[in-house]
Structures are given as C-alpha cells and as structure tokens.
Design goal:
With 747 residues, this protein is of the alpha/beta class. Helix content is 47%, strand content 20%. It has five domains: 1-158, Up-down Bundle (Four Helix Bundle (Hemerythrin (Met), subunit A)), CATH 1.20.120; 172-282, Orthogonal Bundle (Helix Hairpins); 291-469, Heat Shock Protein 90 (2-Layer Sandwich), CATH 3.30.565; 471-608, CheA-289, Domain 4 (OB fold (Dihydrolipoamide Acetyltransferase, E2P), Beta Barrel); 624-742, 3-Layer(aba) Sandwich (Rossmann fold). Helix 4 (89-107) runs antiparallel to helix 5 (119-128).
C-alpha cells in the first residue's frame, strides 16, 4: 500500500519556532480582544486550544520550560473561563507577561538570549494573580526551577505547511500544461466566434437576395405586368434565391457541425484546465507525516515507551488547505495513541506483544477522496470506560448509553469536552483535543470514525475530499426544499410501496435483503409540511454512515452534481442535522444534510419512540413544551425539531415574555436559552422557582457547546436537563423530555 519508511528527524527545529510564534501571536491577539469582550466563551476556547497544542508540542520535544509555561497559562485561562477565579487586571497582566516570556523562550531556541529568562518569577506571578472565588483552591504544583532557555533538543513537530507562507512551488511541467490548455481554449473560443460571424454573413446574403426578389415581384404586380418578359426578368432573382437558400442551408449544416465540434473541444479543454488547476492546489502528505516523528520520539521517551512510526502512501496528494488543517487533529490522534494506547515494553511483553509499539499512518486515494488512517497496536479503547465517562459528564443518560453498541459509544471520544481523565494532565486530557478530529473532517465535508479492539489496538479513520474546490453531492427535493448529501454516503435510490414496509421492533422499516432498514420521512423529521397527497408508492434515498443505513423518504431525485458547499455562517454556527448549504445554478438554495447527525438522530429517536421516525402517522406525545429564546431562527428550528417528535410547542421571545406565557397556561416542560439578552434562561428558572404555581416546573437549558459551563451552572441552579445547541436533535430531546415526564417532573 505504497512505500513504508522511517522518518528523518533533522529538519523541523525552525518550523517549530515559526509555528510557536504564530500560535503565541494568535493567543496575544485573542487576549487583547478578550479584554474588550470578556464574555466571549468561544474566543476563550480558541485561546485554550492554541495553548494546549503549544504545550503538547513543546513537551513532546523536551522544551520543558515552554511546555510548563503553556500549561500554567492554560490552567489559569481555563479557571478564568470557568469563573473559579476573578478576571481581574492582575491576572490579565500576568497572562500577557507569560505570553511575552513564551516568545522569548522560543526566540532562544535559535539564538542565546541577551539576559537570563527568569521563568520561575513568571510562574510565581501567574500563580499569585489567581484569586479564587470560593476559598483559596488547590495551589498549582511548584514550578520547575529554571535559569535559561532549553538549548539541546534538535527538532520541532511544527506539523503542517504554514511555514511555507503564501508562496507555492509548482512543477514547471504542470505550468506548461496549463499554459497549453489556456492557449487551446482561447483558440477554440476564437474559432467559435469566427463560425458565428460566418453564419451571420450567410444569413445577411440570404436576406438580401430574398429582398431583391420580393422587390421585383412587387414592382411587377404594381404595374400589372404578368407577361413572359416579366417572368424572364424575375427568373434570375428566383434562381439566385434558390442558390442562396441551398448554399445557406448547406453552410449552416456544416457550420453547426463545426460549432458542435468546437464547443465539445472547448468544453473538454476547460474540464482539463480545471483538473490541472485542482492538481496545482494539491501537496503530497509526506512532509506532514514526516513532521510527527520527533514528537512521537520525545513523548515515547518521556513516558518510558518504545514506539516506531511507519508511513504508507506518503506520496498521496491532497488539497493544500486540507493538508494545512490536518496538523492539529493528527497531532492529537498520535498523542492519545502514545499516552493511552501503546503499553509500556513490560506490559506489552506480558500481553504477548513485541516490546516496541507500532503506529502506522496511511494515506490512500479513493474515488476522488483521500482516506487517512492512524492505527496503533496498543491496548485499544475500553467501551465501558467511555460509556461511564459519558454518563458521568451528563452527555447521555445511563439507559441510552447501554442501548448503543460498543462501536457507537467509542465514537464519544470525538465529542467536544469529552475525556476519560478526571484531572488535567500534561500530555493529554482537559477535554480538548480529539473533538478537533471530527470538527476538521466536517469542515471539509468529510467523515471521521474510530475502530478499536480491546487488547489489540485502535484505528482512527478520516475520509476527506481530494479538493476543496467542489463537492459531489446527490440532490433531491422534499416538499419544495432542495437537500443534498455527499455522494459517498448515498447507497442508491429505491422505489417502494406499503407492501415493502415491515414493523421491526416496533418501528417501520424497509425490507431490503436480510437486514431491515429504518424508514425516515425527511419532511416530518425536520418539521416541514407534507407537500404530497397520501400515496401507496414512495421514493427513498438509502443513506449509509459507519456501516449503518437508513431509508430517507423524499419526493424527487434531481441527480448528482458538483457544488461549492458553504458553511451556515458564524451566526448560525453548527445547526443539528445540517452541514452547510450551496446555491444551485437555478438560484435555489440546497441544504447539505449532516449524515452523521441524521443517522444518529434516527437511531436514537427510533429507540425512544416505538413508532419510529416520520412514519405515515405522526408520532404523538402528551406534553406541552414552551421554547424560549431571543433568536427567532433558533426558536423556529427548535420548534420544528420538537414538533417532529409530536410535542405541542409554543414559543416565547425572551425571559419576560415566557413569564407572561407561563402565567396564563400550564406547560409540562420549558426549554430556554442559557445566554439570552435581558433575562437569560438561568434567571428565568430562578424567577419561576419563586412562584408557587411554577415551582417544580421542569426546565431544560440550551447553550452553544463553547459555553458548556453555562449548562453546569444551570444544573446547579435546579434545571432538570441541559443540552448543547449542537445536541438538540429529535432523538436526544425525545429521550430527555420523555425521561423527565416518566420521572414525574412534568407540570
């Protein structure tokens, strides 16, 4: 499967310095902006991720002072974000001093500093600037005594292509090919213009001859002349007209044929030109893969492990933008593999394995896409440990967790904020890292999966587009709205009747071969109106994700198309069930469905609702729900999702409006945004608890994932449940509300 080779260590020291400086600059800029916008949790999360990545890279290479400072910076900012310490000026100043010292330490890697860098004093200042909100809190560990910059470690991970800058090295042969294609395209276009001009000239000649003939006839008619002499005088014009008509017809047919040939050649030229330009945007993955070896070596030594890295398919090329974005997710995959996966030599020998662990990084093209795999032969992932951690963190109920099979539960490692660690560590943990694998894949309309066998190892797979210029999708209509899914997830289109439908384990399924496929009415899943009359014949797109299939009932298939996919913008962020949008040639907007969300939502919904999802009869739930949010778009989206599960839903535009609605009607559950303007959801909950007839009314609080700390505060304030906006899917909400009503929490 391509070449297999060890990796050269010697070329990355300068790259580390460049990447570290870029990260520190982004952290500095973020802190400046944070001073003007202190409540920006997303920005705090971005700075934390930069610090976390810098800390890990430095630690892997033995740059202990840089790693120590980055970790203490991360701890302090995390406490500030969690509001366990005061966000005062002393803390802000200490954070800036820490960043300045980090810059000086990075500079010292390439040239000795002019004066002593007192890292210990900076650590002391950072520690003393943290004023805990409740008691003194646990003091950070004593700083490592240091007196000067690290100077002997030889390499840097600096994975990626950021160091190349804006320049791009291009194969001269490719430039020549593109130049030739452009020349041919221009020539074909010029020939097409000449043909059109010749057709125009022939048309003019024909019209002139016809006009002369008509004038002669009209002149004769006006004089009443129908003699043989008149016929002889008109005959030349008739013959000329016949000849002109014949010539025009012949020339027109020939020119049309030539025009078709030229148009075909021009189209082929432009397609070849597009393909060449797409190739021009690509880079081989080998430099990226090579950059990880020093990190692996340093971390292995630190943890007392013996690990080798093998690369296969390093010559595989991928879009430069994708390659640049892969550095961070691959870094976290490798760090987790070494920290949690590969055992110590002694443990491996006891398990009957060779003492040296192995990590294989593989890249291979696949139907216009690139498949990346990182596989280790370590201890694997214990699904029960993941299941318990997910339950402990409130990401899923115990009942739902045990419904999921081991493969599905292991997928929780990609969730934002998920970690099995109970305390922050220097190598991995903090709940920051593996979620970037899925987010990176989704950003480029790709997929990510994790496969693990306890005792044998773990394999993380990312499938990404070869080019970001276009994506190939299957377009279809449900009602009057266009939707699309990536072609790689489309398993075909199937026409069926009611006779092909069976009820399996209480839900409607399509009988296809031996395995029944759950049926999903897309318009009902999304809360859209039915656009068609009841019928006996249906059309379904078979959708596949991670080995699981669903049959998505739609109205019409438009076919495959290459489109440019755009995200939904910063305001909407990640909307459940959707990945992005595209504008079609007709000007219509098509929404790209998130297949992972879709299949997960269907599976969860189907197991919590015996009717299945979007069947011919809508599901019903005897519950009145009040949705409260200051965003009209969010209210409508949540209302549709809940209505699709059969709940009776009303909305309110804010906390005060909700109190008015609650004073006039009894609801079973209130779902409120934790970050509304005016009275937010937590304040609304507090007000409701002060009133006798509202006391005990169950509240579910919703917040974006970057503000997950708001959900913890909501639960502490008495909320019965909490979800991130990204987790607000039909299955999750049916389960959550159903659990509250079952426990008797409803009004």
């Amino acid at each position: 499967m391509g070449e297999e080779r060890k990796i050269d260590l010697s070329q990355f020291r300068e790259k580390f310095a460049q990447e570290a400086k870029a990260r520190i600059a982004r952290m500095n800029g973020g802190l400046v902006y944070l001073g003007k916008n202190p409540g920006d949790g997303k920005l705090e999360g971005d700075i934390l991720r930069e610090a976390h990545t810098l800390k890990g890279a430095a630690r892997m290479l033995g740059f202990s002072k840089i790693s120590e400072l980055a970790m203490r910076f991360e701890e302090a900012l995390a406490r500030r974000k969690d509001k366990t310490i005061l966000a005062n000026q002393d803390l802000t100043d200490a954070l800036f001093v820490t960043l300045d010292t980090l810059t000086r330490l990075v500079d010292a890697l390439s040239q000795p500093p002019r004066e002593l860098i007192d890292v210990g004093a900076v650590l002391d200042r950072l520690r003393l600037s943290q004023v805990f909100m409740e008691g003194p809190g646990p003091p950070p560990p004593a700083p490592v005594p240091v007196t000067a910059a690290d100077s002997t470690v030889a390499a840097s991970p600096a994975p990626g292509y950021a160091d190349v800058g804006t320049g791009t090295r291009v194969d001269p042969a490719r430039l020549e090919a593109i130049s030739n294609l452009l020349t041919n395209a221009v020539a074909h276009h010029q020939r097409e213009l000449e043909l059109r001009e010749r057709l125009s000239e022939l048309g003019f000649y024909y019209r002139r001859t016809a006009a002369n003939l008509l004038a002669a006839v009209q002149d004769g008619l006006a004089q009443g002349e129908f003699s043989p002499a008149f016929a002889r005088r008109v005959a030349p014009f008739v013959e000329e007209g016949k000849a002109a008509f014949k010539e025009v017809g012949s020339q027109r047919s020939e020119l049309k044929r030539r025009e078709s040939v030229v148009a075909t050649a021009l189209s082929q030229n432009l397609e070849e030109l597009r393909a060449e330009i797409m190739v021009l945007r690509t880079v081989p993955l080998l430099p990226l893969f090579d950059s990880f070896h020093p990190m692996v070596g340093a971390l292995s030594r630190e943890l007392g492990k013996d690990v080798e890295v093998l690369v296969r398919g390093g010559k595989t090329e991928i879009d430069r933008k994708v390659a640049e974005a892969l550095a961070e997710p691959l870094t976290h995959i490798l760090r987790n593999a070494i920290d949690h996966g590969i055992e110590s030599p002694a443990d491996r020998e006891r398990a009957g394995k060779p003492p040296r662990g192995r990590i294989v990084i593989t890249a291979a093209p696949k139907k216009g896409r690139v498949v990346l795999e990182v596989e280790d032969d370590g201890r694997g992932i214990d699904p029960n440990e993941i299941r318990e951690a997910a339950i402990r963190k409130g990401m899923i109920s115990e009942k739902a967790a045990w419904r999921l099979d081991d493969r599905e539960i292991v997928g929780f490692v990609f969730r934002s904020g998920f970690s099995t660690a109970k305390a922050m560590g220097g190598v991995s943990g903090c709940g920051i890292g593996m979620d970037v694998v899925r987010s990176t894949a989704e950003r480029f309309n790709g997929t990510s999966e994790v496969h693990s066998s306890p005792g044998k190892g773990t394999r993380v797979v990312m499938e990404l587009p070869f080019s970001t210029a276009v994506s190939r999708v299957l377009l279809f209509l449900s009602g009057d709205q266009y939707f699309a899914i990536p072609v790689m997830h489309a398993d075909g289109v199937h026409r069926f009747t009611n006779r092909d439908v069976a009820t399996v384990e209480g839900r409607k399924s399509l009988r296809l071969g031996e395995a029944p496929v759950p049926l999903v009415w897309l318009n009902r899943l999304l809360g859209l109106p039915d656009a068609r009359e009841p019928a006996d014949r249906f059309l379904a797109v078979l959708v596949r994700q991670s080995g699981k299939r669903i049959a998505l009932v739609i109205d019409r298939v438009e076919g495959e198309s290459e489109v440019v996919v755009r995200d939904l913008g910063k305001y909407l962020g990640k909307v459940p069930l959707f990945m992005g949008s595209t504008i079609l040639g007709t000007g219509e907007v098509a929404l790209l469905l998130d297949v992972y969300d879709l299949v997960t939502a269907v599976r969860m919904h189907a197991e919590t609702s015996p009717r299945g999802v979007g069947e011919g009869e809508r599901p019903t739930a005897d519950a009145d729900v009040l949705v409260v949010d200051d965003s009209l778009l969010v209210r409508e989206m949540q209302q549709r999702i809940l209505s699709s599960s059969g709940f009776r839903v009303e909305t309110a535009s804010g906390g005060k409006a909700a109190l008015e609605r609650l004073s006039g009607k009894r609801f079973h559950v209130v779902i409120a945004g934790a970050r509304m303007a005016g009275m937010n959801g937590i304040e609304l909950l507090a007000e409701a608890q002060k009133t006798d007839y509202m006391r005990g009314l169950p509240f579910i609080l919703v917040a974006p994932k970057e503000h997950r700390e708001d959900l913890a505060r909501a639960m502490a304030a008495g909320a019965k449940g909490s979800v991130t906006r990204e987790e607000f899917t039909p299955g999750r909400m049916s389960e959550l509300i159903g659990g509250i009503l079952t426990r008797g929490g409803g009004g």
